Amino acid sequence: MNVPLLATNYNEIPDMQPRLITLEGIDGAGKSTHLTTIRQVLTDAGLPWLETREPGGTPLAETLRSLVLSQPMTALSETLLMFAARHDHVERVICPALARGQWVLSDRFVDASYAYQGGGRGVAEKQLVSLEAWVVGSLQPDLTFWFDLDPDEARLRLNRGRGVGDRFEQEQRDFFERVRGGYQRRFQERPDRLCVIDAGQAEVEVSAQVKQALESRLIKWLR
Length: 223
Ligand code: TMP
Description:
The chain is α/β, with parallel strands linked by helices and about 220 residues long. It is about 55% helix and about 10% strand. The chain is built from 8 helices and 5 strands. It has helices at about 35-45, 60-70, 75-100, 110-120, 125-135, 150-160, 175-190, 205-220, and strands spanning about 20-25, 50-55, 105, 145-150, 195-200. Helix 2 (about 60-70) packs antiparallel against helix 3 (about 75-100), helix 3 (about 75-100) packs parallel to helix 5 (about 125-135) and helix 4 crosses helix 7 (about 175-190). The longest helix is centred in the middle third of the chain and has 26 residues, at about 75-100. Bound molecules: thymidine-5'-phosphate. The site of thymidine-5'-phosphate has 12 residues, from helix 4.
């Protein structure tokens, strides 16, 4: 269903401040599928966007991604590599895009480090807070979709979808429970930018919920 909002012509507001929108969730929650919905809403609204991901988004960060997804390493190395990749990504992609007036859609961002390295691996929060301050400064997403899903259902989906998973996807249920808890704790303190999506619903319902949430944010940002 088209919401009347889209009749509002954003092209008449060319200087609408660009925003950073992120997607988060445990592996198998299906977040990446819904980038299509977000892209469509922004395109229909006449807003320029750029899609990217973490870890990744630059040649260096993609190289670091393949290392962290495949090589055995300590939790600290993993954390530092995630933040090294993020530094390159923020410097070369996210900040320049926002400065050019493009909206940025990132499949994961800093919240994932709190969830996976903090919750999942047990890295101390104060270390993550220092790295966050050092690497991203005050840059925060304007809107974060958290695709929340029970780890058992996520596992079923992962098993259905692909062959042997990467180093994270091969983790056990208790790891993903801790990651989910890490997201919960992180978002409890950041309700303003959070949109929780029940990722256990049918794909079409999830997509409708994402569309509706984004459109109501656009209305709010326009005021
Ligand atoms: P993806 O499969 O969603 O592209 O993400 C790759 C993996 O990287 C996923 O299992 C989550 C993990 N990850 C972290 O552990 N910490 C981070 O900061 C980020 C961005 C991703």
